Amino acid sequence: MLSNAESASFKAGRNLAKHSMVPAMRKYLLLLGALLAAFAVAAPLPYDESADAKAAVRQALSAAKESRIPVFVIFGANWCEDCRALDLALKSGRNAELIAREFKVVKVDIGNFDRNLDLVAAYGNPIKKGIPAAVVLSPNNEVLYATRAGELADARRMSESGIYDFLKKVTQTAKAKR
């Protein structure tokens, strides 16, 4: 509601731009909000909630035997911001190159810590200190490396080079144990 002074000023043509922009700004903000919501929904989620995780690990182990490279199992969930951040980091730049060159990758959805927990337990409960968590397996299904202290649980705050350094260390550890 305009005060009497503002109303008189408005009628006189002063501050017209200020008041005529309000409806346009509202429309702009609504449109922007709708676009952001559409992009958020359209973004692919990294973890397939309906996947058979055990079968995916078996398939990756089989492929690993042929190629003689280890399997990198990532435990996480779609609701987890750090899991989504790690997934994005692993798909770009030198992180993507290193992952493609050194590992077969399997992403295992743990839901709300209520899914695929038998698989988690089989590899020593790497999610105990947070997700995302990772396990590197030899082609013979032996654990070569596992996160135990929540090393990736703060992935959204890790730089690209921080994630790369972590992956490089994991690669070296896995090679030393092969």
Write the layout of secondary structure elements.
Elements: H1 4-11, H2 16-42, H3 53-67, E1 71-76, H4 81-90, H5 93-102, E2 104-109, H6 117-122, E3 133-137, E4 143-146, H7 160-177
Parallel strand pairs: 1-2
Antiparallel strand pairs: 1-3, 3-4
Helix pairs in contact: 5-7
Report on this model:
The protein is α+β, with helices and mostly antiparallel strands and 178 residues long. It folds into two domains: 4-42; 53-177, Glutaredoxin, CATH 3.40.30. The protein is built from seven helices and four strands. The protein has helices at 4-11, 16-42, 53-67, 81-90, 93-102, 117-122, 160-177; strands spanning 71-76, 104-109, 133-137, 143-146. The chain has a four-stranded mixed sheet with strand order 2-1-3-4, with helices on both faces. A hairpin with a 5-residue loop joins strand 3 and strand 4 (143-146). The N and C termini lie far apart (75 Å).
